[in-house]
Design brief:
CATH architecture: Sandwich
Distance between the termini: 44 Å
Number of helices: 3
Structural class: mainly beta
Shape: globular
Strand order of the largest sheet: 4-3-2-6-7
Number of strands: 9
Number of domains: 1
Strand content: 35-45%
Length: about 170
């Protein structure tokens, strides 16, 4: 029996079919609304990538009071119950490239290059970008933005009701 020899084009095609979808750079824009409150506190926010069954794939960002002495900012982080139960409790904070300070009301963008560890080997498929916000003296809210990760450019948006405004996800090819 003769050995089978693949041409370079056939080998490249086979490798591409077996590799993760390289969709490109991802931007997540989160709107934090200005709430009328006697004592306003900027919300703690967690952003993560999850499967359609809501199991966590990776934490992308956590905004909390990182500048408090003795890591006192971590006291409120468990209040983001959805993120905390799915993946937060396994994360050592502060985490380089993930942790950041709370943000004031307005629109804030997280930019993730295609080479980001959470995206680099992500297989093609359906996912959610989940965003949870918790405000001291306020409420808690989770917004999920479904996305199809398939090598194509995408734009998707979902809206919060109280603690979060619009959450938009875009992937550029």
């Amino acid at each position: 029996m003769k050995p089978v020899t693949l041409t370079a084009a056939a080998a490249a095609l086979a490798a591409a079919a077996a590799s993760p979808a390289l969709a490109g750079d991802m931007s997540i824009t989160i709107e934090i609304p200005r709430l009328q409150s006697a004592e306003y506190h900027s919300p703690y926010v967690a952003v993560w990538l999850e499967q359609p069954d809501e199991s966590a794939v990776a934490t992308l960002a956590v905004w909390y009071a990182v500048d408090r002495p003795h890591n006192e900012g971590l006291n409120w982080i468990q209040g983001m119950r959805t993120w905390w139960r799915k993946t937060g409790r396994t994360l050592t904070l502060p985490a380089d490239g993930v942790s950041g300070a709370t943000r004031a009301p307005g629109r804030h963008t997280i930019s993730l290059p295609a080479t980001h560890p959470a995206l680099r080997n992500l297989p093609a498929g359906q996912y959610n970008i989940a965003v949870e916000a918790l405000r001291e003296g306020g409420g808690r809210e989770v917004v999920r933005v479904p996305i199809q990760w398939n090598g194509q450019a995408i734009t998707a948006t979902a809206h919060g009701a109280t603690e979060l405004g619009a959450v938009s996800v875009s992937v550029e090819r």
